[in-house]
Specification:
368 residues; alpha/beta; five-stranded parallel beta sheet; GDSL esterase/lipase; SGNH_hydro_sf
Length: 368
């Protein structure tokens, strides 16, 4: 009998050891799951600018510059995806930046009624396709001027204070990661399109100085409103956009070097302006994002990203189509956008947006 009791005791001990081991394994699983959930590096991503970062604000305004219809968004296979008003086949740079910083996969447009202040507390886009640093630029296609984006930012802060109390709102605004991407429309849709008369007022160099002064005023304004960690995206190689190549028929559809020269000179000056602001405004962590050289490098060496076409867009003929001209009726739209640099005649594909987002994320990580 004593021997039987000893056996029972051993069995009990063994069961207890197995139970302890099971608990430890479960704890490891829970810890691993928790570790896999990336802690957000910042409380929110806040975005200003034009179509390079607009995630759908133009849907809510009376303008012809929209993209809330197929084939736009055809590769955006996420909840809330599809043709959202993003000028792309999929996600935009703010979306990828948000994901990289541990925040939601999509950054909503402020004017999208499908989202509330609860959603905007972790990310919001005020950008409007067609907008620019020059307020006159927005009038060309009746979109939101930059000053209106700032007004919405002020309204957002009031709503945020009601949602998470004033201290919570202040924390989000001051610690958020900001993306500002704007300027291309000022040159291509305003100055060189000859519709606003700016070309009669300024030489190209003078207009660049004017735009930089506007950028400095804008950056100072959002600083006074609480922004502290801001990335400012330089101009791309504008002369290499498919639409501009198409218009350059006399030179065989090559890049328009005049436009690229303007972009390079502007970028040099804007970096000088940003250095001045960093020295002037205490605690202002301002970083420049170079898309010009990244764009030229990919166009010159498309094999680096596995691209087959860097001169035309995927949508329709890829030469002039954008907005309503890029629609689901065209039989020429490519099947695999990942082989293209451009989605339409003006905007990159999702693959290139992801690529450019890495540069923005890197710049942000250096200032947060």
């Amino acid at each position: 009998m004593a021997f039987r009791q000893a056996r029972l005791s051993s069995t009990t001990v063994a069961l207890l050891l197995l139970l302890v081991a099971a608990v430890e394994v479960q704890m490891l699983v829970v810890d691993a799951a928790s570790a896999s959930k990336k802690k957000p590096a910042v409380p929110a991503v806040i975005v200003f600018g034009d179509s390079t970062v607009d995630t759908g604000n133009n849907n809510a305004i009376n303008t012809v510059l929209k993209s809330n219809f197929p084939p736009y968004g055809r590769d955006l296979h996420l909840p809330g995806g599809g043709a959202t008003g993003r000028f792309c086949n999929g996600r935009m740079p703010p979306d990828f930046v948000s994901e990289a910083l541990g925040l939601p996969l999509l950054v909503p447009a402020y004017l999208d009624p499908a989202y509330s202040i609860k959603d905007f507390a972790t990310g919001v886009v005020f950008a409007s396709a067609g907008s620019g640093l020059d307020n006159v630029t927005a009038s060309v296609l009746a979109v939101l001027p930059l000053w209106k984006e700032v007004e919405y930012f002020k309204e957002y802060q009031q709503r945020l204070a009601e949602h998470v109390r004033p201290d919570g709102a202040k924390h989000i605004v001051s610690n958020a990661a900001y993306i500002v991407s704007v300027g291309t429309n000022d040159i291509l849709e305003n100055y060189y399109l000859l519709v606003t008369g700016r070309i009669l007022e300024f030489s190209p160099s003078e207009y660049s100085d004017f735009l930089i002064a506007q950028a400095e005023e804008f950056l100072t304004t959002i600083y006074t409103l609480g922004a502290r960690r801001v990335t400012f995206v330089g101009l791309p190689a504008m002369g290499c956009l498919p639409l501009e190549r198409t218009l350059n028929v006399l030179r065989g559809g090559s890049c328009i070097e005049e436009y690229n020269t303007v972009a390079r000179e502007y970028n040099v000056r804007v970096k000088t302006m940003m250095a001045r602001l960093r020295a002037k405004l205490q605690g202002f962590r301002l970083a420049y994002v170079d898309v010009y050289n990244s764009m030229v490098d990919v166009i010159s060496h498309p094999e680096k990203l596995g691209l087959e076409n860097v001169s035309e867009g995927c949508c329709a003929t890829g030469k002039v189509e954008m907005a309503y001209l890029c629609n689901d009726v065209s039989p020429f739209t490519c099947h695999d956008a990942d082989k293209y640099f451009f989605w339409d005649s003006f905007h990159p594909t999702e693959k290139l947006n992801r690529f450019f987002a890495t540069g923005i994320t890197k710049a942000l990580l250096e200032i947060i």
